[in-house]
Amino acid sequence: QIQLVESGGDLVQPGESLTLSCTASGFTADHFAIYWFRQAPGKERERVSCMSVLDGTTELADSVKGRFSVSRDSAKNTMYLQMSGLMPEDTAVYYCATDLVRRCLRGDNLDYWGQGTQVTVSS
Question: Which residue in 50, 54, 13 sits closest to 34, CA to CA?
């Protein structure tokens, strides 16, 4: 059974850092593109990043470039979203997702999603 489980969400103050985890089961995450999305209340879902394995590239949304980064731990079948310089507008539920293909696809019509983890940035 394919499953993605996010963790690490928390309440943090502006300027602080936080790392989210996405642990995969039922498949080898290293073989496929993995996405991070976020959705704030009343807003559309936003793609934060995509790690392609077809060409080894990582896409980051303009809103998070220079502040967020992504990585993988193959041994743990886990992906990470490292967030720094957090701002109140980063407040959202963060999701990881995959479509079990090697390249990053357009849009958000992906087959497999985690349940999400809440990140709240507030003083």
Answer: 50
